[in-house]
Amino acid sequence: MSFGKLKSARKAKEFHSYVKPDGSSLSDAEGLTASLNTAPASDSTEQIEQLAGSGANTEPDQMQHTSAHPAQTPRTDEVPYGSLAEESQEVQPDLKPAPSTVPGKAPDGPVQRNAETTTPVPLNDCHISLPASLQIRESSRHGRGIYTNTALQAGTVVMSIVPHVSVLSTSYLDQHCSACAASATESGLKRCPKCKTVYYCDKACQDRDWAWHKHECSALQTWAASAPSPDVMIPSDAVRCLGRILWGSQKEGPDSTWAREIRMMQSNRASVHSSSVEDHTYLAHSLVRYLGVRAPADLQPFSLSSASDLVDLISRFTTNTFTLTSASLSPIGICVAPTVAFANHSCSPNAVIVFPRAQGTPASKEPSLNLVALRDIAPGKEVRISYVDTTLPKDLRQKELTEVYNFTCQCKLCTKPPTVDPRESLWCPKKCGGTCPLPTEEDNLFRCTKCGAGVTNVDAVLDAARIGQEALDKATSLQFRGELSLRSKGYNATQLTTNIIPILVSTGLTPSAHPLLAMTRLHQELLIASLPTSLSQESLDEVIRTAAKYNAGLQPILPKGHPIRAIALAELGKLLAVDEPASLASPAQASMFPPSGPPRLKLAYESLVRAHEELLVGFGKANGGGHVGRDVRDAIARLEKEIGVWTSGIKNALEDSVLAQRAG
Ligand SMILES: C[S@@+](CC[C@H](N)C(=O)[O-])C[C@H]1O[C@@H](n2cnc3c(N)ncnc32)[C@H](O)[C@@H]1O
């Protein structure tokens, strides 16, 4: 969900609510390289050299960054951002100077606003797809970032580009086209007869992808031939994506704009977090195997002069990779788009990344990555996305940001959180309607902010939260584990969510609190997956109730128009619009949720209308809310007709009974 960035396959596993980890990713690499040791970062270069068959590292380790990252260039021209007189004098090739209406504004997020300085970044003929309404500036705190030159309204498509490379996650390879990422239609996809791994919509998509796939095809075949077990016959999406980056650089040439843009992406190699070293090492080992690299010299055709360059590339990749999502936000792969990768992070972002699959976008321009304004953004402000799931509590967000991206977030939500953050909240123990912060091991003296009642069941709450998190991890891994049949995976996971949710609710967690919200989302997903085989009034009503609780949980933590909220509302509306297997409409049921009959249709209609409004923001007004927006519009039109038929049916019946009475 991602929205935003979900860098690296490893992250996808942690993205509990919206990212469906395919279980392949780095675990593929783990399977293949399990016998390799996992030395600290400083040894990783040597390890890769060894894997490549060169024994000791005989090549001088050049340790060079292939691009001059502005952060490493001494600067003498720093000016406070928005200092117009100075700013307009600066040389800004390809960039429109900030308009003169810009007062001294600092980007969103940082607390010490006044201390922030930013300077324009020279792009050296790269990133020509950056619209004139934006510019890249470098700040003293967050490195380079995307800033607006003009006012942007919520729902504006700020930028729309085709990523340099994109690949599908292993479990989606046979469900989506490997060129345009469209999902299979009724006519199906066509498989590459040689590698039998990738699929395409048609010949046009296959031809478009051939520049990459001609290298990939034989690499996939070689990999499969030597795979130690059937579940690792296909390399992870991360390995395949890196392969495409290297073949792309080879095709375009090291001095091409394409390759320079890749090299301009930030590398955190020098400060890689210890917890990521192992992943990076596995990835490097898998990559050299995939590329057929046996000696350092074999890296040269890829413009990598040493294993050190390879380590750098992997750091760039993990720091800058986006999750490729479907139009309804299912994570289906990963992609690299260097221009949008300049976007910095905030836990309350003013923009999102989506792949709306808008009507009229040709397949040759898909997957189309859209940066969309989530709120109105004033001129001169920084455009920020979230790299992590913002429904998570602060500690979990910070952990991921530190481990994967090497920074501590200083956004307002992290530095000045509300007294009660709904992500970590309990209902008042006296049931006054107020809420209390969730107790922690360190701090458990919490009171209701409304009536002052103290939380008494601290141990029970702590236990429930711990069990909930463990169950969430377990249910998620069950759901996506390869070896179980689809039905038993779903069944086991549903048993877990069914058992744990009542425990979390009974200890007083609010619907927005972690891990209850994530559990509810997973439960909804599992129930929807089982609907086709077990559609009954009861099962439909149960999933509607779950979807309603999930929506209620999202409301306080995501702003209106956030794509996750919009999709959740659309899902609820669509569920309410499903034909009832056995309508229970009776006076006794009138107060129950979900209602039956016409009130249900009315609720479906209202939910879909609201969803459509939010989709227009989250997926872009110019995109009509994307594919889901279109779908919802059609559903609204169908409901309008249906409600019209009901209304006229009732009117006719009433008129008939009046006539009958008169006649009688
Ligand atoms: C995808 S890059 C974003 C662009 C990057 N600033 C650059 O100069 O290329 C991610 C990196 O930017 C930095 N970054 C992004 N958001 C940040 C934030 N809110 N605070 C501090 N550093 C941030 C971190 O170094 C992170 O690893």
Descriptive account of the structure:
The chain is built from 18 helices and 16 strands. The protein has 664 residues and is α+β, with helices and mostly antiparallel strands. It folds into 3 domains: 330 residues, SET domain (Beta-clip-like, Beta Complex); 111 residues, no CATH class; 102 residues. The strands form 5 sheets. It has a 6-stranded mixed beta sheet, with no helix packed on it. A hairpin with a 5-residue loop joins strand 9 and strand 10. Helix 3 crosses helix 9, helix 8 packs across helix 9 and helix 14 runs antiparallel to helix 15. The chain is globular, with a radius of gyration of 27 Å. The chain starts with 7 loop residues before the first helix and ends with a helix. Bound molecules: S-adenosylmethionine. The site of S-adenosylmethionine has 19 residues, from strand 4, helix 9 and strand 11.
